[in-house]
Amino acid sequence: MYSKSENNLTTPPHLKKNGHLRSVSSTSSFFYDRTDNASMVDFSQNVIQQYLGSNSQTLMPRIKTIELYRKNAKKSNDPTVLFQYAQYMLQTALLVEAEQGKSTFGTPAENSPREASPSNNPSSLNVNKSHKKTKSSNSVDLGNIDPEKLEDKKLKRALLKEAVRYLKRLSDKGYVDAQYLLADAYSSGALEKIENREAFTLFQSAAKHGHIESAYRTSYCYEEGLGTGRDARKAVEYLKMAASKNHPAAMYKLGVYSFYSRMGLPNNINTKKMGIKWLERASNIANELVAAAPYELGKIHFEGFEDIVIPDKKYALELYSQAAALGHVAAAALLGKFYEVGEVVPQDSNLSIHYYTQAALGGDPESMLAMCAWYLVGSEPYLPKDESESFEWAKRSAMCNYSKAQFALGNFYDKGIGCIKNTSEAQAWYTKAAENGEEKSFSRLADKDLALKIQKRFKKANSTNPNSTLSAQEKDCVIM
Prior knowledge:
- With 480 residues, this protein is mostly helical.
- The chain has a domain at 1-128 and 137-242: Tetratricopeptide repeat domain (Serine Threonine Protein Phosphatase 5, Tetratricopeptide repeat, Alpha Horseshoe).
- It has 19 helices and two strands.
- It has helices at residues 45-52, 59-75, 79-99, 152-172, 176-188, 196-208, 212-224, 232-243, 248-259, 269-284, 292-303, 313-325, 329-341, 349-361, 365-377, 387-399, 403-415, 423-435, 448-464; strands at residues 16-17, 20-21.
- Strands 1-2 form a two-stranded antiparallel ribbon.
- Helix 8 (232-243) crosses helix 9 (248-259).
- The model is unreliable at 1-57, 101-140 and 469-475 (pLDDT under 50).
């Protein structure tokens, strides 16, 4: 899941395609109750499937339920009834999509949605973009649906068409939940095409009528220029609107923007004080989606700020622990190091291993290398010595292009630690480490001409850019 890493302020990788932002969508709102209006990130396809069920037979009772909804919808002018009907149809449409490729009565496998990448913090709705507009002869009467005979594509298209019809009708009448839901569908690509301009208009309309999540999403539109022009002032304005209603992500972002004077906010003490207050409020209600709030607040209390925040390492550690418990990778890595070194807190190998493991599994290459070191020396009774496992962690870290790990892996191959000795592999990894700036790799390279060539390249880079240096040589771990 994303936002378990540094923060939520950068665009998640899953929202980019060919270097460009794919969608403004940050929720899949039509898969759960919207009364809290507080969600702010996408659900992965796997989560959606867990919610809706993975057995294609679940479509049968859902179609029957739609018929019951439809009968009530035809008799009622109650917007809540109509909205629930449209929402349920969108849920069912996505279930049809989730079943593509494995359904017993549907579309071939090539039309199935892409799997959510396990390395990315949540993904947006992975909607097949290959659908084309069909002729009217392909339209389906929902009143005569036989899901056992109907193709998935046609069933999904029919459900979406009727759902959108009701949502548009409700949106035109100012029903904010319908405006938000339709905007979310437009922006996520759930309707088979991303329409950020239409999404922005609906988000903004709902936000002006007090819909909290829509205010947050409108802010994001202005910040990223999705469906509208970039406008930092308006982005902050809508962010404040959402934050004032206790939207966790809005409070967090406003706190960071204010404290670090981003988005055109003034660089003065009062603004920074407000930033700290927003971070405090966000930390008080932090969840897994905004785990970075206590982490950012912890950094401020660890170092202190002017005469406003007195350094308090004990409280900072509590905030780091809160963030790590919520899945924040950087916080876990920091705690792992603190408990290993013993300068900030008493040394505790068990806790160090615990936090390093959490951060390593979260994708932090430095923590992976730290786990490599722990397995190499062992820490009885918490962790037995295991050179093979140590080698595997070094390899994982090196594959992340971390120069220290690449040098360490070369050392493993060079000496046959936890693996079969392989000089050529060792040289290959020493070369990669050297190219990434690991100084100690130069002396290990058998090809001295290559080593000299790489060194000259770095010297030239350093002479033109004084701030560009070889990788910082921190305290060497045991594997070095």
